[in-house]
């Protein structure tokens, strides 16, 4: 048990430094193998004199694993680690010493659910938290972002990047910004036939028109850039007098009038 605790502490130092990802990954693999030998952990959950000590080590390892998965941008691994951590946070929370990483990691998971628009799961996670947990800055930040998104206050989402409560949010905030840009793009297509390139770039939160052009090339190839204007749909041809089949229309109108007079 002493060896596992020392190795868990070493893993935490490695992931917090973020400079030895390969070494941390190898150490994590060995630690997870070691955890399978502890009888107090799920699925066995056999109570013994060392149960709380074993569960704390397991929680510490899983928290480090969650941080490592964020650094590697491995969202499948992140979700697996959070799912396992929820057992320790919610089932054993009163038996173990408080974890300083609990709400930062839960808040990060909430942000991940927002990015993927998994709103039912987002609110399900919130329901599991006590009132004191919802007041935590990490949870409150995620809840506020959800409110901004529901209101369509996309500029506030952009401003919120300046007040991220923990460093784990950075990757997800970048993803959320992309989600917001896509939503703005869809609204712009409906609301406007065209926009000035500079104005469109500002609206979609790009630092320069060149970034907007790159976005259009990658994700909106149907948009047309002509001179300094972005056309969301092909410009419509304005009909002139020669384009209107006036004689045919006049003839049809007279025919309808004749038929109506006959009926009356």
Automatic annotation (TrEMBL):
Signal sequence annotation: none
This protein's UniProt keywords: Proteasome
Gene3D superfamilies: 1.25.40.990
A GO CC term assigned to this protein in UniProt: proteasome regulatory particle, lid subcomplex
Domain PCI: 73-248
UniProt record, GO biological process: proteasome-mediated ubiquitin-dependent protein catabolic process
Record flagged with keyword Lyase: no
Superkingdom as given in the UniProt entry: Eukaryota
Pfam families attached to this UniProt entry: CSN8_PSD8_EIF3K (PF10075)
Protein family per UniProt: Belongs to the proteasome subunit S14 family.
Name of the protein this chain belongs to: 26S proteasome non-ATPase regulatory subunit
